[in-house]
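Co-fold these.
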Amino acid sequence: MPGGDRVLVVQPLSGQAALVHREEADALRALAPGGSLSASLPESTLRAAGFVVDSEEEERALLAEAATAWAREAERTPTQLVVVPSFGCNLACTYCYQEAFDATPGTLMAPEVVDALFRYVDRHHLGAKPKPYLTLFGGEPLRDTPAHHDRIGRLLRGARERSLGVAVVTNGYDLERFVPSLAAAPVKEVQVTLDGPRRLHDRRRPHASGRGTFDRVVSGIDLLVSARIPVNLRVVVDRENMSALPELAELAGARGWLDLPASRFKTQLGRNYELFGCASRQRRDQLFDRVELWARYLELTEARPILRKFHRPRFHGIGHLAEVGELPAPNFDACPATKKEWAFGPDGSIYGCTATVGHPAHVLGRFHPDIARDDGAIAAWRERSALTIPRCRDCALAPVCGGGCGAIAWDRDGTPLAPDCRPVAELYGLGARYHRLGTDFRPRGLEDAEEER
Amino acid sequence: MKLLTTLKKSCCAPEGAAQCCAKASRLVSGCHD
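Predicted complex below.
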């Protein structure tokens, strides 16, 4: 844990975590080559928690049990069907990752392609349990033109007729014109991006004409809140806007967003990453890696506590541990592509996920004019998990990292069967400090229950 | 050593597994972020 003399020990296979002194951690590490247990460590607890095992066989049994728990969780996860009505967009964000491969900007999904999409969904996804949901994505799906209103109306209607949930990812610029139809749909969540206070947001996410977008986006979020449509506020963070997060948190507080329950308003901080090459106007030296981002956020939160109300990061399950005293289920697969996620382009192409949609090398089939699937390519993606990626096999972090993003791995290695490693140990350390897993730690849920009594 | 979690009892016993191994939490997914 940064800034202390304690070490967080985690056994993701059994879901157990403990704090030990540095010298105890060293003694545990010394066991790996086959040493004997130090008398200062409680042997029965170490064994019961799975921190110490006697044999490869015992470890394999733990792994098998964890893999079963993971499979059970995966069965309960609905599949996300991402629909891109158009790759066109009315904004000109400085870091847009799609600009590198968007060959057909402005082409809107034709009515017959919407019909074909639902025929495909009926055939391949409607029978799944739990039921899948649609996510409208882009480009920008919500643009105030008659043709866009028509297509969004058709998509919402098709979803409603099949009792499919709908989520929307939007830049928020034309939200005012869409809130009535979204409220009637109904929509389970709208993700809107706000990159900071006006001066920063407008510099990073200007309209294609060059004018600012901040005021319209903020009004759009207010309208969603008034219509009781759940909002997921995304902030894309790099060195340019990180220090302005407290200002954004104050704005969110002043508008009453932070007083809403999590079911109606939540936030996410996204990294500004470079997927498939470099965004033309992105300054490379402004980008964070994951550890830098969360270390800086932790530092900022300690100086400006309002950020605790704005966004509480999860740190690979440490947030869950802090809240309920339990680690989440292991995750051997961070990549949902072709398993829990599919994406559909406006021209009838099928892709694996939001990261690959629109990339010509990642077309996995067609749903229009005829249905065709590239079974070989799909199988390569479906097979991907930390249990099958050769370089993940001996990694202790695999049940937490899950092999990372398959699209990034593909970009680097030319195959999805390669890892996109996550700095799990460093993020655990930062998470332990952020969530105050000190010696007097008690899960927050228990504290709340005692206070109520 | 301070354990931060609750030890699960006889997780490997088939009759106990359903309850004590069950976790209410969802998968922690990261994707490309």
